[in-house]
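Need tokens for this chain, all 363 residues.
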Amino acid sequence: MLFDPKPKESRKDLFDRENELMELKNSIEQGPLITLCIGVRRSGKTSLIRTFMNEYRYPSLYLDARKLSDYGYSRAGFLRLIADGFNEYRGLVDKLKDHLKKIKGVRISQIGIEFEYSSRDVSFSSILEQLDRYAEKHETIFLVVFDEAQELRFLSGYRRLDIRKIIAWSYDTLHNIKFILTGSEVGLLHEFLGFSDPESPLYGRVKNMVTVDRFSKEKSLEFLEVGFNEIGFSPPKEVLETVVEKLDGIPGWLALYGYTVAQKKRFDVLEEVLEEAITLALSEISKLKKYSELYLYVLRAIAIDCNTWKCIKNYIETKTGKILANARLYYILKNLENFSIITKENDEYVFLDPIYREASKRL
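Here are the structure tokens for all 363 residues:
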């Protein structure tokens, strides 16, 4: 169903992403080792990747790096993430077991793959070597997908894992492994990977980029019309136009509206959907307080149209009663851009998603 809030996994449920699918296919088949898939939150990156994996059937290991916030940003947490990736598709473990069992510290049982976290022999590079050998034997490409890859920057602790070094090593050593890395916090992803940073292991490495944009107004209307036709609903055109205006072409929010209508069987649910979306966005941006409360002041200022450097600085100094150093404000604004929450247009800072603007008004 087009309005299913879960990530799509088949072409028939993926709306208007044929060009992106072909870009991804060409990148994997003819492009470099690394493909970046970027776009704002809820633009459909995961749906694109999942559909690509199912459509083209390359052997693949899908790793959702967001799980590390629960598992821990450690070697053990990372290995648990890898185990999840293998065990999600039982058939994958069955295909690879003859290769994986060659790695000391790997156990394969009826429930799937397990790692001995204390074993020094279990490493991501040793796993990649076996995946590469499998792909070479079967004359194919093995895909390793990191969803929300910017989360990998937090990996720390004893024997810290720097995923950039492993990818660089793979770039130089392995011939049948390719990486897809997605990111909603686009600036952070680029900063972390460091393709332009001489100090980064990935400096100067060639990569391709697939961008998943929000829908245009016309495509947003078409998305809603197709989705409602699929479930046998016929909403008035003016209702859909209002929805598109409020949700600004973000596929995830549009799907949430359609799903809510389908569940409640009425069209006057926009305010409910907006409230749910704003509450979710507010929960996300409120976490920035752990860095500094100044982030919340900056977002609040921009949300109420105090969006120039001078206005933001004056607003914060008035609210806090303290002088704010220019360098500190620059750092915060740059981070908010890296988080893909705001962008700068003609010397004014604006929100990339209107939902986040409304949420910031409540800070």
